[in-house]
Amino acid sequence: MKTGINPSILTEEIQNYINANLTADLHSLLLKKSPFPDVSMHEIAQQIKGKKVAQKKFPFLLRDGIIFPPNLNLEQASSQSTAEFKAKNLKGKNFLDLTSGFGIDAYFLSQNFDEVTLVEQNTELLETVKHNWKILGRTANFLNQNLEDFLTKNTNKFDLIYLDPARRDAKKNKKFLLEDLSPNLLEIQEKLGEISDEIIIKLSPLIDISYLLSVVKNVSKIEIIAVKNEVKELLVFINRKNSHTDTEIKCVNLESTDPDFVFVFNDEKNAVAEYSDPHNFFYLPNNAVLKSGAFNTVAKKFKLLKLHANTHFYTSDEVVEDFPGRVLKVGVTAPKQILKGEKFNIISKNYPLSPDEIKKKYKISDGGKTYLIFTQSQKGRIILRSVE
């Protein structure tokens, strides 16, 4: 077996040993001598780590014969839930992934395409993906090549191009500006447009959307993807035929009951919010919506009132259904009504004390079903308590 990886790791005896040690402490395990002459304890620990990660991040890989790459590749790979979401409504003849990595996105994105091409410059990583796809019953054209070299020599056209640029430099420092990524998207965007009308780029959730739209051409849509209210990534959809500036922003919170929130980016500039002291209901948008910057659009769309210009909390007399975030029935409370030893879920925004400082000051702790919200309205600092 010639895979660029150690074939002995796949023997039944070693696989049984790996499965038997899935709950073992990896640090302690690494101090032991490997019981197998052809496989090091480091290789065994890597497979154990991979299976542990796969249990939560990509369970479709929990099957016999799958090989897992080093930790950094596991960390950088998309989760199964985000990859499955990205694959919705995508289809065509030719799919190209220019930064294959561990191939999670490619596996799902390419499912409705006839021909699949994966480009990856890391030889061992690509061979791992090639081996795994064989186990999974999937085929592709696997190219062990530098992305820039591929673009220079390629003469084919594709229905869809996908890429996830490296966001770390040689010293493993995180990078966010497009010109600092590898590849430099600003340098290759014209070339990408020559070989496909449809391009999807995965970017860090920390990137500024206004900056992004100012430097990338023909952006038709941006999807902000969160999982359980943690923003994981931004997906940029580039349509070469798109010449207008009405970029759609879609905010998604996977593995939650939140509905998607969709708006046109430029509409936020013209949206005006009204302000008010707290009414009966309190609204906190999920983090995908907050990342979008649609603070006034949210107020306008759901007919809500903002508490403060610098606090993206909203209020209303009657409950609004299908809000993309947390909705609580609340009442204003006084500090003396917060009793020592009580348990609360604490939210603090635009308030001088952090949740930890609040817990210390009032001698309260985390837990329970009641929320305490420390914030500001137009008239000053307030404390809200949720009502069952």
From TrEMBL:
Pfam families xref list:
Cons_hypoth95, PG_1098_Fer, Thump_like
Spell out the InterPro entries in the cross-references: PG_1098_Fer (IPR054168), SAM-dependent_MTases_sf (IPR029063), Thump-like (IPR041497)
Presence of keyword Methyltransferase? yes
Sorted alphabetically, the Gene Ontology BP terms of this entry are: methylation
Q: State the UniProt keywords alphabetically.
A: Methyltransferase, Transferase
- The residue ranges of the PG-1098 ferredoxin-like domain are 281-324
Domain named THUMP-like: residues: 342-381
Q: What is this protein called?
A: RsmD family RNA methyltransferase
**A GO molecular-function annotation:** methyltransferase activity
- Record has RNA-binding as a keyword: no
Organism taxonomic ancestry: Bacteria, Pseudomonadati, Bacteroidota, Flavobacteriia, Flavobacteriales
> According to the lineage, what is the superkingdom?
Bacteria
